[in-house]
Amino acid sequence: MVVRVRHLWNKTTREVQFYLSSLQSDAQIIGRAIRKHWEIENNVHWSLDCTFFEDASRIRSFHSPRNFSLLRRLALNALNREQSYKRSLRQKSKRATMDNSYMQQILSSCFSETTLDPSEPLCQA
Questions:
Q1: pLDDT under 50 in the chain at which residues?
Q2: Has this prediction a pTM greater than 0.70?
Q3: At CA 104, angle to CA 107 and CA 68, rounded to 5?
Q4: Helix (H, G, I), strand (E, B), or coil: what is residue 118?
């Protein structure tokens, strides 16, 4: 059982969640596993949904869902690597659709000098 208490400026919320696990009954280990799960959810899935509306996607047949998921992740990483335009990922994406030179700037950010190390991937998926 995990109890989460969140203090906002005008209210406090309390949420209780129950987890089933085969891990030993060690609060530190279980706490790390739960935080790791939510870290992935917050960093990747939430970003994909807010930027590309991935959860609302109607793509369902054959290999299309997996292919489009890969393309979205590549685009998300490229948008994250581009640092000259300090806006949200969604705003960067919209600007790239209207400005070809900005789109080229995003794509070239995947191939910057700092990523030419052979052990490091150019754009992670």
A1: 115-116, 125
A2: no
A3: 50
A4: coil
121: Cβ contacts below 8 Å, ≥ 6 apart? 115
Residue 71 domain flag: yes
Cα 6 to Cα 13: distance, rounded to the nearest angstrom: 5
Give me the domain span that covers residue 89.
2-111
Buried b (16+ CB within 10 A) or exposed e, 91-114: ebbeebeeeeebbeebeebbeeee
Residue 120 domain flag: no
CA distance 87 to 34: 30
Instruction: Quote the CA–CA distance of 32 and 38 in Å, as a whole number.
Output: 10
Domain count within the chain: 1
